[in-house]
Design a protein that fits this description.
single chain, 66 residues, alpha+beta, two-stranded antiparallel sheet, 2 helices, 35% helix, globular, binds zinc ion
Length: 66
């Protein structure tokens, strides 16, 4: 057991669209720990919050325009 080794490949976060090894799964998508924390700590009147919501909407309605 080697718990200190890092995976070279993580999963692509739907928010920041970068590969991260740590995060949570939401439906079929992945949100990295950093983005999860940012979403939680961002005020709803913050312009950045709209960006997060936009990214999160992709999870719930991936084929809305088809
Ligand atoms: Zn992320």
């Amino acid at each position: 057991m080697d718990s200190t080794s890092k995976k070279p490949d993580g999963e692509t976060c739907v928010i920041c669209e970068q590969k991260k090894s740590q995060g949570i799964h939401l439906y079929t998508s992945f949100i990295c720990t950093q983005c999860e924390k940012k979403i939680i700590s961002t005020e709803t009147n913050d312009p950045q919050y709209k960006f997060y919501i936009k990214q999160l909407k992709k999870i719930n309605t991936p084929k809305i325009f088809q």
